[in-house]
Amino acid sequence: MVFKKFMAKLGKGGAKVDLILDKEEYASGETIHGELMILGGAVAQEINKIDIDFVVQLHGKEQIFTHLIERFPFHEAFTIQPEERKVLPFTYSLPTNLLLSGHAISYTFITHLDIAEAIDHKDHDPVIIQAPPRLKRVFAALSELGFTEKYSSRSFDGHLQEFEFAPTSLFCGDIKELEFVAKIEDEGIHMLIEVDIPSFMGKKEVKREIYLDNSLLEQGSELTDQLKQIIAEMISSPLSFAHDKKTFYHNYHQKWSRSTGAIGGFAAGWLATELLEDLFEDAFADGSEADEDGLFAFSEEEEID
Q1: Angstrom distance (rounded) from CA 141 to CA 135
Q2: Is the model's pLDDT at 305 over the cut of 80?
Q3: Do 46 and 113 belong to one domain?
Q4: Nearest alpha-carbon partner for 4 in 147, 154, 134, 118
Q5: Tens of pLDDT along 99-126?
Q6: Which of 85, 99, 123, 215 is the most buried (most CB within 10 A)?
Q7: Is the alpha carbon torsion for 285, 290, 295, 301 positive or negative?
Q8: Name one Pfam family in it (predicted).
Q9: In this structure, is the dihedral angle defined by the CA atoms of residues 229, 234, 236 and 241, taken in order, positive or negative?
């Protein structure tokens, strides 16, 4: 028994914690349901407390920036007996304005089991934050038009999350790439769409601000037809549109942080100037440049350890 206690203090045969969630993918604003399971080890141990951290990781050029979104404390101390199983319910309503998961953005629940006089135990549970239903319909409509989302999509510049799509059929040859940023409101979605049109100078960037109301977003075929017409007009009359990302952001920044559906609004609220400067410094060191609107989108392909 003495040997078992000694080994438990070193983490061998000690108590463990496991956060069990009902699934791995969630839409922003959705409620997560699960349970927190504490499993006793070979000997009885005192549990000081349990903390569950919900964190977001932004992958920069040289490092990963981690931010604590919310902490869920279970600070009532208790004794876990050998091989005992203790289960606590867990629920959490996700913020509605989270950045969506992508190659440079990821989310994890990290559970900390604080064991008295022993090595603590941790549990990591990554989750994927998907687009809310109305934005998913925009993705579906673009897919119907032959667009596929690029790996580099969903980058974040501290203000806006950008979505990038490549044409594969209908508009292939007419445009090189379609990009957009979005602000989701109760009655619809504001979008700034950019299409890169091939030209003798390389490409011409045409930007157009549009608004899709909920009634249109509910109609799959009509939404697809509307987006098809919008893109076709941008290709045929590029000089008719003169919008830019900076103006789009400043038109809505007063409502950005308090809007319930601003994609990136949550992150824009906690990203400090110092953090943005670090991100830019890392990115520029890699030879990247800010875009013509003065907003920078960084990306990274590293994996989280």
Answers
A1: 10
A2: no
A3: yes
A4: 118
A5: 999 998 999 999 999 999 888 899 999 9
A6: 99
A7: negative
A8: Spo0M
A9: positive
pTM of the model: 0.79
Structural domain contains residue 258: yes
Strand partners, 70: 54
Residue 296 lies in a domain: no
**Are 281 and 139 in the same domain?**
yes
Containing H/E element for 32?
A: strand 31-39
pLDDT band at 284 (very low <50, low <70, confident <90, very high): very low
Range of 6-15, 66-75, 277-286 with top mean pLDDT: 66-75
pLDDT per residue over 222-232, tens digit each? 999 999 999 99
- For the record, the structure tokens of 46 come out as 């005192």
Domain of residue 143, residue span: 133-285
Residues 196 and 275 in one domain: yes
The structural domain count of the chain equals: 2
Cα–Cα distance, 159 to 250 (Å, whole number): 10
